[in-house]
């Protein structure tokens, strides 16, 4: 018999670990192909970031140098991936045709089973049988939709037409939705209420790792709600995104523009009972933001802060839908990386926190992209219905989203043509066509109130979009339109990493919308996507490119005003696609490092949150030493890269952006502060007035900053001041600093008045206004 193995000393253990690490390094260097491929990828990444950091449009000849440098970096990057045989992660497994649920299947008893039956599990054995659409309910829905169109005349929502509108949509969905007939609403309610029990909630660490959903097919509530490491990562990133979106939201940006005044006036109209379908003020606006802000006015009144809180809420929904969209296209690992890059993206912060309708394009484009790619991948009718509903709702948000349905249509047409040309897929193509018709019908029903307004006021409905294409005259055609359009495409492509938007309200003028590292990742992501499309016939990349183009098109189509292109806000629908492309490139680098170590296929969680701790918690490969080394290697690369992206974006938004924004604004908050100070020392708001001045301040903003949007402090000229003589309270007149005539006249009429010249740091010491305070009961001296 052999005795027990001798105990190893600490010195022997340390020597053994050193030998193990040394063997890993020798093996890595010995695998020449993998080492060469990894070296090419890293050189390509480094080259792109280097030349991106030295890009300077103001320097003559720098454009050619930057282009050649980026081209070299992309070539090295693609060469390394091609040599190693790496591909973009696939989450695009086409399901088999739907099969009927066996009649002997037991009735579902849990939420997981109900959800699986309702939307169809990826496992073909649990998919739904295609259900015939109820012709009677469709007829009812069509009748209700027609009634909606009729009742929505006069550009007004009423209780009746809203009820009929909602009934038409719900009836259509009920008629078309594929569901398990064994499932009753009472079963849904009972299983949902069961989740309210506290003992249902537990973490993965408390009861062990959950079962693999690919094996179980569904999640079981009776086992408790388990939080996997991936779920913890996603939840943490969403919380971080919410914190970034709301941090110092009252201060950055601080100042409003006249557009904000127009929007808040529309909100006040809603609060006053004017429930319009389309708001014609300021060349026309869709209604959703105004109703959203009106609902939120109990938080902070009719104010700029309320506007920003509402748009931040909309912007936040970009994050989860981007994760879902990217996961549908490229898997969980790329999705987590995309989410981590998008959380601190300056582009998303700028469109979400400015208080206008700008976050609607990224939020709805992410949702539309998610459901579109689910439709293309899974071909389930319910996804088509949801896609139609989201597209219809999007039309009530922002003009730029009117072109996104065209991109959806192009992708579906391509999918249909591909199916028709594939042997044995004729039935699938026919089903795709039928589901697309249902999708169009669903979006049309949601769009119906706007359709009625467009029929009544076509020029107003089309004015804003057509004015960018043609001019302020809708029927005019600009000269050299084709050449301008082509140049707009070039300028839009340069927007990401060369020369940005020039509008100070929405961005840092002239600065590319992506930081140095993000811009490099975007270039690599585009090149990797194009290579995969050409070399591997990866159809996903074709649809991604189509969606990106149509997301950029609202800015590109500004032919009449090419100076407005590229536009940070009109191209906002591209944010989820840009996040996908950046994450695809970063994932390629991390996966290359992981494969170089030789521990098998990359694990999404390890690539998304690379650390030795996570790697040690999730050991499932053959060699734990390789896993630890791979986690360390990936972490040493990924953490600085993502950290530098966060740092650059947050510094740019919270430091550089507010500085230039404040310098260029009307400084309406300063006027509001003066009014509030006047009231604090015994004055009445109705006794404060402002005289008009050229290129100065919008008096409506002063009223909003003072806390009363209905207040009208403007007076036509200085002579109107004498009509206020004899008022018992003191009076305040705010005058343009260069309006010497009005200042002298007030000083002459009211010699006992107090005159204050107001200058602030953001005005570079230059006077912003002159405040003349007249004593109570003062009468003008006649001279």
What is the C-alpha radius of gyration, as a whole number of Å? 31 Å
The geometry reads as: globular
Helix content: 55-70%
Strand order of the largest sheet: 3-4-6-5
Count of beta strands: 6
Task: Give me a quick take on this structure.
By secondary structure, the protein is mainly alpha-helical.
Question: Can you walk me through this structure?
Answer:
α2 runs antiparallel to α25 (575-597). Residues 94-105, 107-128, 197-222 and 610-623 have low confidence and may be disordered. The chain starts with 9 loop residues before the first helix and ends in a 9-residue tail after the last strand. It is 60% helix and 3% strand. With 783 residues, it is mostly helical. Strands 3-4-6-5 form a four-stranded mixed β-sheet, sandwiched between helices.
């Amino acid at each position: 018999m052999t005795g027990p193995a001798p105990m190893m000393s600490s010195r022997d253990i340390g020597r053994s670990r050193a030998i193990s690490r040394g063997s890993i390094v020798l093996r890595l260097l010995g695998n020449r192909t993998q080492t060469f491929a990894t070296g090419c990828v890293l050189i390509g990444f480094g080259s792109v970031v280097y030349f991106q950091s030295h890009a300077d449009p103001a320097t003559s000849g720098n454009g050619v140098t930057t282009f050649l440098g980026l081209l070299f970096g992309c070539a090295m990057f693609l060469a390394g991936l091609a040599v190693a045989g790496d591909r973009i992660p696939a989450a695009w497994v086409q399901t088999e045709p739907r099969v009927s649920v066996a009649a002997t299947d037991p009735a579902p008893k849990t939420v997981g089973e109900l959800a699986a039956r309702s939307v169809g599990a990826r496992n073909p054995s649990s998919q739904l049988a295609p259900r015939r659409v109820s012709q009677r309910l469709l007829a009812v829905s069509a009748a209700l939709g027609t009634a909606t169109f009729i009742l929505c005349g006069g550009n007004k929502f009423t209780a009746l037409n809203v009820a009929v509108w909602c009934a038409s949509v719900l009836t259509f969905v009920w008629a078309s939705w594929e569901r398990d007939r064994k499932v009753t609403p009472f079963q849904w309610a009972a299983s949902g209420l069961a989740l309210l029990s506290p003992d249902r909630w537990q973490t993965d660490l408390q009861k062990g790792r959950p079962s693999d959903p690919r094996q179980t097919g569904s999640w079981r509530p009776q086992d408790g709600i388990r939080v996997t490491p991936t779920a913890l990562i996603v939840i943490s990133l969403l919380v971080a995104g919410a914190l970034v979106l709301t941090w110092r939201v009252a201060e950055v940006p601080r100042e409003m523009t006249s557009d904000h005044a127009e929007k808040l006036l529309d909100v006040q109209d809603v609060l006053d009972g004017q429930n319009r379908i389309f708001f014609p003020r300021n060349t026309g606006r869709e209604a959703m933001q105004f109703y959203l802000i009106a609902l939120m006015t109990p938080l902070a009144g009719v104010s700029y802060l309320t506007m920003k809180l509402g748009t931040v809420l909309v912007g936040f929904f970009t994050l989860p839908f981007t994760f879902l969209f990217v996961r549908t296209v490229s898997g969980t690992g790329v999705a987590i990386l995309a989410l981590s890059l998008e959380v601190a993206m300056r582009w998303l912060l700028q469109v979400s926190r400015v208080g206008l309708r700008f976050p609607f394009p990224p939020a709805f484009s992410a949702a539309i992209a998610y459901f579109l790619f689910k439709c293309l991948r899974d071909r389930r009718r319910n996804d088509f219905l949801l896609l139609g509903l989201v597209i219809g709702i999007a039309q009530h948000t922002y003009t730029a989203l009117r072109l996104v349905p065209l991109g959806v249509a192009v992708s579906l047409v391509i999918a249909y043509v591909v199916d028709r040309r594939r042997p044995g897929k004729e039935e699938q193509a026919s089903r795709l066509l039928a589901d697309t018709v249902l999708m169009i019908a669903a979006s049309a029903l949601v769009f119906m109130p706007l359709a009625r307004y467009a029929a009544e006021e076509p020029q107003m409905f089309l004015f804003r979009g057509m004015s960018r294409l043609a001019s302020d005259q809708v029927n005019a055609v600009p000269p050299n339109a084709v050449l301008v359009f082509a140049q707009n495409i070039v300028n839009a492509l340069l927007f990401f990493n060369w020369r940005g938007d020039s509008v100070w309200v929405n961005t840092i003028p002239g600065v590319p919308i992506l930081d140095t590292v993000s811009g490099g990742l975007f270039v690599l992501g585009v090149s990797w996507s194009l290579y995969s499309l050409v070399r591997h016939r990866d159809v996903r990349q074709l649809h991604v490119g189509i969606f990106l183009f149509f997301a950029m098109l609202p800015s590109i189509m500004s032919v009449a005003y090419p100076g407005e292109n590229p536009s940070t806000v009109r191209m906002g629908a591209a944010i989820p696609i840009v996040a996908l492309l950046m994450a695809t490139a970063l994932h390629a680098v991390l996966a290359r490092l992981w494969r170089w170590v030789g521990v098998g296929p990359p694990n999404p969680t390890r690539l998304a949150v690379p650390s030795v701790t996570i790697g040690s918690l999730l050991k499932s490969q053959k060699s734990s030493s390789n896993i630890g080394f791979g986690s360390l290697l990936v972490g040493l690369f990924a953490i600085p890269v993502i950290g530098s992206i966060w740092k650059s974006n947050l510094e740019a938004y919270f430091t550089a952006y507010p500085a230039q924004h404040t310098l260029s604004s009307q400084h309406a908050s300063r006027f509001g502060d003066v009014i509030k100070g006047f009231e604090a020392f015994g004055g009445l708001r109705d006794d404060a007035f402002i005289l008009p001045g050229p290129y100065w301040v919008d008096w409506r903003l002063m009223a909003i900053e003072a806390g009363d949007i209905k207040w009208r402090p403007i007076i036509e000229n200085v002579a109107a001041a004498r009509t206020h003589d004899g008022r018992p309270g003191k009076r305040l007149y705010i005058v343009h600093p260069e309006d010497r005539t009005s200042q002298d006249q007030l000083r002459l009429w009211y010699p006992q008045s107090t005159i204050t010249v107001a200058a602030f740091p953001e005005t570079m010491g230059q006077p912003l206004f002159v405040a003349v305070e007249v004593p109570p009961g003062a009468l003008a001296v006649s001279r």
